[in-house]
Amino acid sequence: MKLTPVMEKYILHWGEMGTRWGVNRTVAQVHALLFLSSEPMNAEEITETLGVARSNVSTSIRELQTWQLVKVVHQLGDRRDHFATTKDPWELFYTIIEGRKKRELDPTMTVLRECVLESEQDKKTPVEVKERIKDVLEFTETLDTWHQQIKVLPKPTLQKLIKLGSKIQNFLGK
After folding, report:
1. Are 139 and 167 in contact (CB under 8 A)?
2. Which residues pair with 72 in a beta bridge?
3. Which domains, ranges and CATH numbers included, belong to the chain?
4. Got the DSSP string for the chain?
5. Which of these, 109, 9, 21, lies nearest to 67 by C-alpha position?
């Protein structure tokens, strides 16, 4: 695949952003390349296009599969695996949010619940510290509840809701 300067810029920036989101640069670049590609690509094509090691591409693809961001696509007459990702930014967003929730929010809520339960018997932890921990738990549980409600909304409804932005305050009252 021949990259245009715009495509290179996009892929490089996505790789840079990936590092800021806690994702390996090459993982993010492979995902960006597959997102821009009109056809599924095999690992050799990805390696050649990005100029990275084949082992790095394999590792990146496995990571993206773990996140359910890349799927294997078979092509008639070719024994190699080809890889593709959704081209829908909303679907990507939902997939990433679900993955982050499972890896970050759910374990955090579990530990916070344990801390709150243990703190009830704990005489040494100051009351204000116990309250702060409980507040963080309530905050994360509120986020989780919001997430559960939002994820079932049809995409057009969610798009309208987001576009409303601060105008929603008019519906809720000041």
Report:
1. no
2. 83
3. 5-84 (1.10.10.10), 89-172 (no CATH)
4. -PPPHHHHHHHHHHHHHHHHTT--HHHHHHHHHHHH-SS-EEHHHHHHHHT--HHHHHHHHHHHHHTT--EEEEETTEEEEEEE--S-HHHHHHHHHHHHIIIIIHHHHHHHHHHHHHHHH-SSS-HHHHHHHHHHHHHHHHHHHHHHHHTTS-HHHHHHHHHHGGGHHHHH--
5. 21
Sequence-distant contacts of 114-118: CB under 8 A, at least 24 apart: none
75 with 82: CB under 8 angstroms? yes
Q: Which of 155, 142, 174 is nearest to 86 (CA)?
A: 155
- The packing angle between helices 25-36 and 43-50, to 10°, is 110
Yes or no: say if 46 and 57 are a contact pair by the CB < 8 Å rule.
yes
Residues 101-146 pLDDT 10s = 999 999 999 999 999 999 999 999 999 999 999 999 999 999 999 9
Question: What is the pTM (predicted TM-score) of this model?
Answer: 0.84
Q: Are 96 and 67 contacting, i.e. CB atoms less than 8 angstroms apart? A: yes
